[in-house]
């Protein structure tokens, strides 16, 4: 009886190991979503450039609108990067290492797309998402009318919170050039 249960157990474990390959679905969908985000971001930036070519902005309101469109494009690129990191991370964690990303004999980390654990994936995603949120907040601040003391306080508090967010994302490290 021990022999048949161990054969059954081995078959089940082989099937269970192969079942991880279903994670290719979120990998492919995140890569498709990355391409869609990059295309939409490029459309936003081209739209801003066409606005600029159509008529040079002459007042602060039209300049703020132009900057808002440009920042929206950058935000879409950041979302695409987050999706790309997610897709690469899921692939490397559950399916296989991406050999093309590594140089022969290289055991060191290869930057943003080098993901060795679920915690590393979460950490990298959080950093990119927080930066995307900072960019979105900046875009919203561009159109905030500063016509009262209350709005000035809200704007100042927003700038302070954005600075604090950037500080926390960098882990409190000093930014150097």
> How many distinct folded domains?
1
Largest sheet: none
The assigned structural class equals: mainly alpha
Q: Report the helical percentage.
A: over 70%
Description of the molecule:
The longest helix has 36 residues, at 60-95. By secondary structure, this protein is mainly α. Helix content is 74%, strand content 0%. Helix 3 (60-95) runs antiparallel to helix 4 (118-142). It is built from 5 helices and no strands. The protein has helices at 2-19, 24-54, 60-95, 118-142, 149-169. The chain is elongated, with a radius of gyration of 23 Å. It has one domain (2-143).
Distinctive features:
mainly alpha, 74% helix, 177 residues
Brief synopsis:
Helices cover 74% and strands 0% of the residues.
List the helices and strands and how they pair.
Blueprint: H1 2-19, H2 24-54, H3 60-95, H4 118-142, H5 149-169
